[in-house]
Amino acid sequence: MEQKPKYYLIMAGSTNHMLRGDQLLKDSGLKTALVPAPSEYGSVCAIAIKVKTEDLKQAEVILKENEIKLEGIYPEIPKKLSGLVEKLYQSVISDDFLMILKKVEEGEELSFEDIVRLLKTERKAEMDALFDAADRMRKEIIGDTVDIRGAIEFSNICRKDCKYCGVRKSLNDLKRYRMSEDEIMDVVHQIHKIGLQTVILQSGEDLWWTPEKIVSIIKRIKKETGMRITLSIGERPKEEYALYKKMGADNFLLKIETTNKDIFKFIHPDDDFNIRKQCSSWLRELGYLNGSGNIIGLPGQRVEDIARDIIYFKEMGINMIGIGPFLPAKGTPFEKYPPGSVDMTLKAVAVTRIVCKRVFLPATTALATLDPDGQTKALKAGANTIMLINTPVKYRYNYQIYSEKNMVDLESAYKAITESGRKFPPYLKIDLEELKDAGDTKK
Ligand code: SF4
């Protein structure tokens, strides 16, 4: 007999209708969640309202009464990974760990306790099983192609003093820079020439970059290249976010860093957790492909905090999640703190893939900095994106959020993609043989 679905996914006709509908349902006492919609129901950035099957009828009535436009209502089909556990019976894996993987195999949701248990394992066989499960989930949901994006760190001037950050405002020795619009456009054209489709414009919270200046760059990028634009320029008023979206920005990256409010406050003397979260909600509301992420190994952080971060990403409907290890930066209050663990970062990547499923998960530069094979390992543990650092050489060494930053270039991306047995994106316009030769010569 066919099983009744536990949940339904409601796809609204627009982001505004989706958000208004979700709020109306919540106000009526229904438990809902905003989740990335499965590929069969929408594009990678589409978000759906998830409701329990027993609440569906009531939800439909509420939405209809309030004239919320709907595109469709679909049963949630759990992503099953058949045969996942069977091959593990011969391995040295505890029964409770195996039971959690069985839940993954059956497409069941993991509880907070399950997530903590997965993250806490230090047994090699269990970690391998976790990475394999995440890799399988990534393959079935997203496929083998690694998305490559190009980042330009266009200003290292910042009004804030985050304690871990290598460009914080109190660092007097740092040579500060702002790239000019033409300098930025030169790099955008280089990135465009090699076929990349998304450019990430990243900076400190530098208010010299007024809305007019940011809009001018967005317009030029769209007009001259048509590339997708990710902004990563920090906290700004909602009206500004709305303006950038209207002018053509597609994605926004604003990391929460940690959902533990005490740690958040400790590491961010100028910030307020609720404002950061509010900014992230605005970005989602405005229809951005919404990026967030966390740092693994922050002072005082516990495994339970990382589990809560992962649940936050899921509940906030985050589409791009950058998970990197903490790396001490010279001259900062945290310079003597030990770096985060590669294994814990990889476990967090893997569990995030399993829990959040259809999201962009970068193999981060921070991981590549701590471990030369870090990106390959991340790509084998659920990651599907690589961000190249395209900041001009004369500036890039002054944009080190942490010290000894690995400057991920096409050659290292080539290495990570080939070593992990993955595919290059079809849009790349470069000779892969040349890259291979360049890598071989360096060895
Ligand atoms: S983390 Fe971002 S906001 Fe904080 S000091 Fe560094 S650049 Fe500025």
TrEMBL record:
InterPro entries: Aldolase_TIM, BATS_dom, Elp3/MiaA/NifB-like_rSAM, FeFe-hyd_HydE_rSAM, HydE/PylB-like, rSAM, rSAM_sf, Se/S_carrier-like. Its cofactor is [2Fe-2S] cluster; [4Fe-4S] cluster. Signal peptide: none annotated. One of its GO terms (biological process) is sulfur compound biosynthetic process. GO terms for molecular function: 4 iron, 4 sulfur cluster binding; metal ion binding; transferase activity. Keywords: 4Fe-4S, Iron, Iron-sulfur, Metal-binding, S-adenosyl-L-methionine. The keyword Metal-binding applies. SUPFAM superfamilies: Radical SAM enzymes (SSF102114). Pfam families: Radical_SAM, Se_S_carrier. CDD domains: Radical_SAM (cd01335). Residues 144-364 form the Radical SAM core domain. It comes from the Bacteria. PANTHER family: 3-METHYLORNITHINE SYNTHASE, BIOTIN SYNTHASE. This is [FeFe] hydrogenase H-cluster radical SAM maturase HydE. The gene is hydE.
